[in-house]
Structure formats: structure tokens, C-alpha cells
Amino acid sequence: MTQGERVKAVRKAIGLTLDKFGAKLGVGKSTISAIETGVNNLTDQMAKAICREFNVNYAWLVDELGEMFMEPDIEIMGMIDRIMTGENEFHKNCFRLLAKFTEEDLAAVERIIDYWNEITGERKEGDSD
Known about the structure:
The chain is mostly helical. It folds into two domains: 3-63, lambda repressor-like DNA-binding domains (434 Repressor (Amino-terminal Domain)), CATH 1.10.260.40; 74-120, no CATH class. The protein has helices at 3-14, 18-25, 29-36, 44-54, 58-63, 74-85, 89-100, 103-120. Helix 1 packs across helix 3 (29-36). The radius of gyration is 19 Å and the shape is globular.
């Protein structure tokens, strides 16, 4: 199955038209149609957008490895639900902020945390002494 065929399989699995699928990704139906039919290649940016928007497994979409959809982390989802339905606006805004971060933003946060751990003597999970 080609990447375009996998995009179409995702769209069909979630029951969206070309219009609605494209709208959720910020593109028109002609863009999605061109990807599905192989006229245009699936860009990495579009693949990541599809995965993020529809909880699709990136490895499956790009290389047909694993399952189509990611398994949700029920425990984490429950924690997020509790925070987002709570009354603490600071906690809600923390999640809103993280949800808007780009890959570069997240990498910067990771570097800051790594640096913090380095200066405080903390180790990453899996690091050995």
C-alpha cells in the first residue's frame, strides 16, 4: 500500500469526506485527493499533521509499520481530563500552552530539562551510573 493509499485508508476509517479531512488539516480537498492518488507525495509536515490530528501511528502512515491508530494512554488522558474540567486556570493554561508547542519548542523544553537534571545531578530514565 502506498502512502497515499494509507492516507485514504485513514480518512475512510474515520469517516470523513475529502473536504472535512482537508479542513481539519488546513488544506483543500484537492490537496488531499492529490496525495491519495499519488499525484503529490505525502510531505513529512502533512504526515505529522495527520498523525497529530487523527491519532495516527506515524510509523504506519509513512512505512506501514505497526497499527494504523495509536493506542491512547488512558491514565494520562484521565489526568488531563481532570485538570481540564477543574477550576485551576493556571493548570489548564499549562496544557493549552503545551498543545500549541511546535516540535522545536518541545525540543527546547527537553534541552532545558536535561540541563536542569545535569546541574542538579538528576539522571534520565535508563541512564546508568
